[in-house]
Design goal:
Radius of gyration of chain A: 25 Å
Helix content of chain B: over 70%
Structural class of chain A: alpha/beta
Distance between the termini of chain B: 16 Å
Shape of chain A: globular
Strand content of chain B: under 5%
CATH architecture of the largest domain in chain A: 3-Layer(aba) Sandwich
Largest sheet of chain B: 2 strands, antiparallel
Number of domains of chain A: 2
Distance between the termini of chain A: 97 Å
Structural class of chain B: mainly alpha
Largest interface: A-B, 38 and 34 residues
CATH class of the largest domain in chain A: Alpha Beta
Strand order of the largest sheet of chain B: 1-2
Largest sheet of chain A: 7 strands, mixed
Order of helices and strands of chain A: HHEHEHEHEEHEHEHEHEHHEHHHEEEE
Number of domains of chain B: 1
Number of helices of chain A: 14
Radius of gyration of chain B: 20 Å
Oligomer: heterodimer
Number of helices of chain B: 14
Strand content of chain A: 15-25%
Strand order of the largest sheet of chain A: 7-6-8-9-10-13-14
CATH superfamily of the largest domain in chain A: Response regulator
Chain lengths: 409, 321
């Protein structure tokens, strides 16, 4: 009995250990209090729905950037505050996207990065504006996004207006070097704001470089069969095909044209959603010599190459969604550093005054006018021997363009 | 329940629903509640034609989109006040409903043929919206943000909640009237056996066409609500098939042909959607869970969720007797 009682009674060592543990537990909040509160960043993307691949890639890019900032000690001017991702899925639907913004506001996010589709960017930026939440648009091409006078919206990359102008310049240059063989074009585009806006601008600008537009063909999202579109293109016999579509339709159209052996001097997309390493790797025969004018990292920048290796080591591809979301988060981290606060107004002011150059895009230092970065530039790309090369502008080019492309058979 | 008691219960529920935003913990919760009420209202618009009259439509979004575009174009291009535009949108939806009804019912289309022709109309309207200059095609129309009550735009989501509640209350009143009125009885007769209804002297063509007109006006009013809340309309948002499915689904899940079925369906589907969406870690998991729950409800509750309450109520009354 007494032995049992003795066994139940705490030993001096146990008392010391328990006391130390309790003291540690009680002290923990004080130690925690010395640490800066994390800064929440909303990562809003369509990770389900018809653009789920692009959404997941965007989310990955944002998360890598957050991890890197935290690994480097967090936001130093805020006592090393860590960034914390608040994830949101728009499901490629306007109302879900807006509901997610409401949720992120309740979660106390300092800023939002998102969200791929122009129509949803338009609605979600407006929802964020109600609460003054700074919103960095990673992907979302419409020029309307930065022309509504919303003070909380910032876009690092160029919108489709500038992209089309530059793409026309690139195509004019490439075609001119080949002796002006391309005299006619057909435009195929997806039917939402992004594709329609891009196609409209292309149709206006192509005659300026002596390329006649034979027809503009639009298609829905999703489209599961492009046989008739391919037959129509074959019958029109254009020299070049201009495309502007999201991932799945881009790939399917390219594959259908390849299967039907439609001969073209070139296939040139503007912001082609499917033009990426995945496409070049999965369908090398189809992708070979296709060209795209799209967002691209500066290929000679060592940070870009290191990031590319890192992403590929994770078993995924270094697509434009990854590095645009990555850089959008880094842009916010830089603004937080300068603002020294997660206060929305201070952060918005810091973003508006941003002269950030620590990115790996071919943009130079940032300068925002009405939320649009003025230095944002895309590049002309071409698949050559299964890899993607920059073929224009010359200062970033890693290869010369192959134009016209070889004929079938 | 007698009519006075029903009105009292309905009024008390309305007051409680009006006060709900004051106890909800956040704007997010208010927004979710507003969308549930709004979805219930759209479901009710489908239910008027699909549930009460048995005219199953797969393309009810044609009315929703017409309303969204009508008020938006009147506002942006013609400078109309959106409140007036809202009335015009409801009228436009009603006219489209009457026109589609007149064409389809004159041609004797019933059942799945009528369902398919509504789907075809919705597609035609979507293609037209995608091609026409005045709708700005695929570019869509952006309503300039100017949050003022006079512009039917609000900074605080609670106002959209209250408007959605008012719309729903109105639609419930229409449904309750149909349940008790002579016109509603005619629709029920048509739903059960159209030929027998005709033999009884009911003007089947007229009743069905008017019913589709009422239903169309309601869905179009919903289209304006949506456009004013999100301030952007494009062809896939306005005429996308998902909206038709949503309207149909909340009615079927809740209980088609009943007054409160769409509200029950919207509450359950909205709640399930919110809960499953909170599983953000598993990409796509939320949709899998959501789909599985839908399959289960459809498989085991063919009369909808309201059928369970009706059966229980019946059993209890049987026991009491």
């Amino acid at each position: 009995m007494s032995r049992n009682r003795h066994a139940l009674a705490p030993s001096r060592r146990q008392i010391v250990v328990t006391g130390a543990t309790l003291a540690g537990a009680l002290a923990a909040p004080r130690i925690g209090g010395a640490q800066a509160r994390p800064v929440r960043i909303g990562l809003l993307h369509p990770v389900t729905g018809f653009v789920a691949y692009s959404g997941a890639q965007s989310r990955l890019g944002g998360q890598i950037a957050i991890d890197e900032v935290n690994a480097a000690g967090g936001i130093r001017s805020m006592g090393g505050a860590k960034l914390e991702a608040i994830l949101g899925d728009t499901q490629a639907k306007v109302e879900i996207g807006v509901a997610e913004v409401e949720k992120m506001n309740e979660a106390g996010v300092a800023a939002i990065v998102g969200c791929f589709q122009s129509a949803i960017v338009l609605a979600t930026t407006q929802a964020a504006a109600k609460y003054g939440i700074p919103y960095a648009v990673d992907v979302g091409a419409s020029d309307l996004i930065t022309s509504r006078g919303l003070k909380n919206v910032f876009r690092l990359k160029p919108g489709f207006g500038k992209c089309v102008d530059e793409a026309i310049k690139a195509l004019g240059g490439i075609n001119g070097a080949a002796g002006g063989i391309a005299k006619s074009a057909v435009i195929v585009h997806e039917s939402s704001e992004f594709g329609t806006g891009t196609a409209k601008l292309l149709a206006d600008r192509l005659p300026g470089i002596n390329v006649e537009v034979k027809e503009v063909i639009k298609h829905d999202n999703p489209t599961r069969n492009f046989d008739n579109v391919a037959l129509r293109i074959r019958s029109l016999k254009p020299d070049v095909l201009m495309m502007s579509n999201y991932q799945n339709e881009y790939v399917l159209l390219a594959r259908t044209l390849h299967q039907q052996k439609v001969d073209l001097a070139g296939m040139f997309s503007v912001l082609g959603g499917g033009f990426n390493y995945k496409f070049a790797k999965d369908l090398p025969d189809v992708a070979e010599h296709m060209m795209d004018y799209n967002h691209w990292f500066a290929p000679t920048n060592p940070k870009a190459q290191a990031m590319k290796k890192k992403v590929e080591a994770m078993g995924t591809l270094f697509t434009f969604e990854v590095y645009l979301a990555y850089n959008a988060v880094k842009l916010i981290a830089d603004a937080l550093e300068r603002a020294g606060s997660a206060d929305k107004e201070k952060l918005t002011a810091a973003l508006a005054a941003s002269t950030w150059s620590d990115h790996f895009m071919p943009y130079g230092a940032t300068r925002f006018v009405d939320g649009q970065n003025q230095g944002g530039e895309a590049a002309a790309l071409q698949v050559q021997k299964g890899d993607i090369e920059v073929v224009y502008p010359a200062q970033f080019a890693s290869a010369k363009p192959v134009f016209p492309k070889p004929k079938f058979g | 329940m007698n009519a006075r008691r029903i009105v009292a219960v309905f009024g008390a529920a309305l007051v409680a629903a009006f006060a709900l935003p004051f106890v909800l913990p956040s704007n997010y919760a208010v927004n979710v509640a507003a969308m549930i009420l709004f979805t219930a209202f759209l479901g009710q618009s489908w239910n008027i034609a699909g549930g009460f009259a048995g005219q199953t439509s797969f393309g009810h979004v044609v009315f929703f989109g017409t309303g969204a575009y009508a008020s938006t174009i009147l506002q942006v291009a013609w400078g109309w006040n959106p409140w007036l535009g809202w009335i015009a949108a409801a009228l436009a939806g009603g006219v489209v409903g009457l026109a589609i009804g007149a064409l389809a019912f004159r041609a004797g289309l019933r059942g799945s043929y009528f369902a398919l022709v509504t789907l075809a109309f919705a597609e035609v309207f979507r293609i037209l919206a995608n091609s026409a200059e005045f709708t700005r095609g695929g570019l869509g129309i952006l309503i300039p943000s100017d949050p003022r009550a006079a512009n039917l735009q609000f900074k605080d989501p609670v106002w959209f909640y209250w408007i959605a509640l008012a719309l729903l209350a109105l639609s419930l009143a229409v449904a309750a009237w149909l349940k008790r009125s002579r016109f509603g009885a005619q629709l029920a007769a048509i739903r059960e056996n159209e030929d027998a209804a005709r033999a009884l002297g009911i003007d089947v063509f007229r009743a069905k066409t008017i019913c589709l007109g009422i239903s169309g006006a309601m869905a179009a009013a919903g289209g304006t609500f949506y456009a004013q809340k999100y301030l952007y309309v494009d062809p896939s948002i306005a005429y996308g098939v998902e909206k038709s499915v949503e309207m149909l689904l909340v009615s079927m899940i809740g209980g088609a042909g009943t007054v409160f079925g769409p509200l029950v369906g919207a509450a359950v589907l909205g709640g399930v959607g919110e809960i499953t969406r909170s599983f953000a870690a598993g990409q796509g998991l939320s949709l899998v869970v959501y789909g599985a729950i839908l399959v289960a409800i459809v498989a085991w509750l063919p009369d909808g969720l309201i059928g369970v309450f009706a059966r229980r109520g019946g059993a209890r009354r049987g026991r009491d007797a």
